[in-house]
Structures are given as structure tokens and as C-alpha cells.
Design a protein that fits this description.
- This protein has 10 helices and 7 strands.
- It has helices at residues 23-34, 47-61, 75-89, 111-127, 143-146, 158-172, 175-180, 197-205, 209-217, 223-233; strands at residues 14-17, 38-43, 65-69, 92-97, 131-142, 184-190, 243-245.
């Protein structure tokens, strides 16, 4: 799809997108690069894929990139990533908290909460010294997590949904202190996304789950469409409630 942000909008700006070597994160990074931003591309364990994306962004858009492997649940690893970003770019203007998980095997019972709540806050805190007034933080979530307190989700996803909602709540608590620094935060939420690893895993564990959600919602966004919404959230005025809701929510109850 065409870039949702006009070329040149982000000239001279630097964005860090967590989990940006593939999927929604990679497409978000691509849209931001096409708008002129320099990119910090973060990955956990797929360096070749991240390097390939960096080369493409440079070739297609002349983007200056920094590829950094970091385990977001490891404070030292996150600190090292932010140090590298400061050394190369001097600071950050956009922080997209895209990386999440919790359905992986053999990561421990508390992994979802460590990644989707604790690590999100940890990455933000580590990034703050690099972010000046006018910067933007974007937290990426799902309707299944955003509305989890009033609308149950499939059992296979419940732990992830609860942990992502906990992460959203923890970040929202920081909105006043961020505002004092002139930094804005927006939450971007969408239904299940066609073509993502999460959707694939859920369909494997609960056959037909994605088809059922598609039928209920009428349409599910694909990876590129959701990435476009995230990229736009990085530049559009922040709504009064600090959230950008994408797609139909008629089957989800109001937030308590």
C-alpha cells in the first residue's frame, strides 16, 4: 500500500521500533523511513532479517539505520541499545513499543507479564533520556487485550491479553509525567491481524478462531494496514483519550 505519511514529514527525525525485523514492526519502520525518519531496527534473535530490512530502507529511501539486537526483558540489553542509538543519532523522536509475545514455549510462566508489562515500561524509561519535548511514544496492542476486562477472549490468548492490558495500564499511569516533559503517548489497538505469528499460533491452537473473528468483525486488518495505522499514530494529533482504535469494536464491551 502507499505510504500513509507524506514524504519529508519526518526528515531529521529518528524512530526506534521494537520488534521491527519482521511483520507489523518491519512495515511500520518502512512507512516511517519513507516519511524521512532515520530508524533504529530492533530484533531479538533474527539478525540477518533485520540487516536485510536496513539495507532495503537505505536503498529505497536513503534512510540511515542502526540495527540493534536486544532482549527487551533484559535491562542491560535495553540500556546498551539506547546507548547505541544515542551514539549514532543523538536522541529519539519516536518510540514505537511494538514487540510483544507470551505464547512462546519454555520461556517461563511469567514471561508474558515480563515482556508485555515490565519490559514495555523498562524500554520507555531507558529511552526517556534520549527524548526531548515534542517526542511521541506509541504502544501497540490488540482489542483482545484492550477490552479484556469486559470482553473475554479465547483461553489460549488470555494470559497474553491480560499482560498486554497490564502494560497499557502501566504506560498510561506515566502520561502525566510524560506530559510534563512535553512527550505524548498514544495507544493503538486493532483486532487480530491477518498474517501475523500470533494469529497463526492461535489458529493452530484453536482451529477456526481467525475465521470466526473475521466473520464477527466483517474484516480484519492485514499486516501492512495495521502498520499504516501505527505509523500515522506517530504523527497525527493524539486523541483526548490517548487511544487510536482501528476497525470494528461492536463485539467488544466498554472499558471499565
Amino acid at each position: 500500500m502507499s505510504n500513509p505519511i507524506p514524504a519529508g514529514t519526518l526528515d531529521g527525525k529518528t524512530a526506534l521500533v521494537t520488534g521491527s525485523s519482521r511483520g507489523v514492526g518491519a512495515d511500520t519502520a518502512t512507512f516511517l523511513a519513507a516519511a524521512g525518519a532515520n530508524l533504529v531496527i530492533n530484533f531479538r534473535n533474527k539478525a540477518p532479517r533485520a540487516e536485510k530490512l536496513a539495507a532495503k530502507l537505505n536503498e529505497d529511501h536513503g534512510t540511515q539505520t542502526l540495527v540493534v539486537g536486544a532482549d527487551l526483558t533484559d535491562a542491560d540489553s535495553v540500556s546498551s541499545m539506547m546507548g547505541a542509538a544515542k551514539d549514532v543519532f543523538g536522541g529519539l523522536d519516536i518510540l514505537v513499543l511494538n514487540a510483544s509475545g507470551g505464547m512462546e514455549a519454555n520461556m517461563g510462566d511469567d514471561y508474558a507479564m515480563r515482556l508485555n508489562r515490565d519490559a514495555q515500561v523498562g524500554v520507555l524509561e531507558a529511552a526517556l533520556p534520549l527524548m526531548a519535548a515534542g517526542s511521541r511514544v506509541v504502544f501497540v496492542t490488540s482489542h483482545q487485550a484492550h477490552f479484556i476486562r469486559t470482553t473475554p477472549t479465547m483461553p489460549e490468548y488470555e494470559a497474553v491479553a491480560l499482560s498486554k492490558r497490564a502494560g497499557e495500564d502501566a504506560l498510561r499511569e506515566r502520561i502525566p509525567s510524560l506530559a510534563e516533559r512535553g512527550i505524548e503517548l498514544v495507544v493503538v489497538s486493532a483486532d487480530m491481524i491477518e498474517g501475523t505469528i500470533t494469529a497463526t499460533l492461535l489458529n493452530r491452537l484453536n482451529p477456526g478462531a481467525i475465521d470466526q473473528r473475521r466473520e464477527q468483525a466483517g474484516k480484519l486488518l492485514n499486516v501492512s494496514e495495521f502498520a499504516a495505522e501505527i505509523a500515522q499514530a506517530a504523527v497525527d494529533p493524539v486523541p483526548e483519550n490517548n487511544e487510536r482504535i482501528c476497525g470494528d469494536v461492536s463485539s467488544f464491551g466498554p472499558i471499565e
